[in-house]
Amino acid sequence: MTAPRRALIVIDAQQEYFEGLLPIQYPAREESISRIRKAIEAAVHAAAPVVLVQHELPDGAPVFGSGSATFLNHPNVAVHEGKAAKRISKQFGSVFADTDLDAWLRDQGIDTITLVGYMTNNCVLASAVDAEPRGFTVEVLSDATGAIDLANEAGRASARQVHDTLMVLLHSNWAAVADTSTWTTALQAGEPLEKSNLITSAAQGRNVL
Known about the structure:
- Helix content is 37%, strand content 21%.
- The protein is of the alpha/beta class.
- The strands form two sheets. Strands 3-2-1-4-5-8 form a six-stranded parallel β-sheet, with helices on both faces. A two-stranded antiparallel ribbon has the order 6-7.
- Helix 5 (120-131) runs parallel beside helix 6.
- The N and C termini lie far apart (35 Å).
- The mean pLDDT is 97.
């Protein structure tokens, strides 16, 4: 078994999700940001590169405005900015869209990306799906990500419903989903995380639901 060559991708762990218009509601944001910090510390200790991503929109935008207070990384992440192997500014959901992340990961020999950050229902999902045709193995840390309540013309869903559903969805196809503690153990051991697949998940769903 070949040990994964991992990079930790911290997606948009910014003040917008704490003090702005998009407060994370599940899991509890103070708990998830604590797990993000623990993941960063574990990656640094294991000499796995850490990539810090920030969503950036033009100055004056209602969210993520360049130079605004809510554009800044949360203090739990900002304290590690000097240890990041790479920092990226993005304008789309996927961390790969219009960035040089794909090329950089390949230059570093990375084959596995671990996603933490916000939001489960937007940039985490988009990045995991976008990684598939690029050939990267994806891991998502369920307790180091977070979602918001949603309601529109199509219906409504609580943040917990959104988050839990997307974790099951991701684990069925695009990513190995685990909590931060389980991932840290795998990181230290140089082992991959196990994931399910769509056929197995469908069969188990018929038996359970």
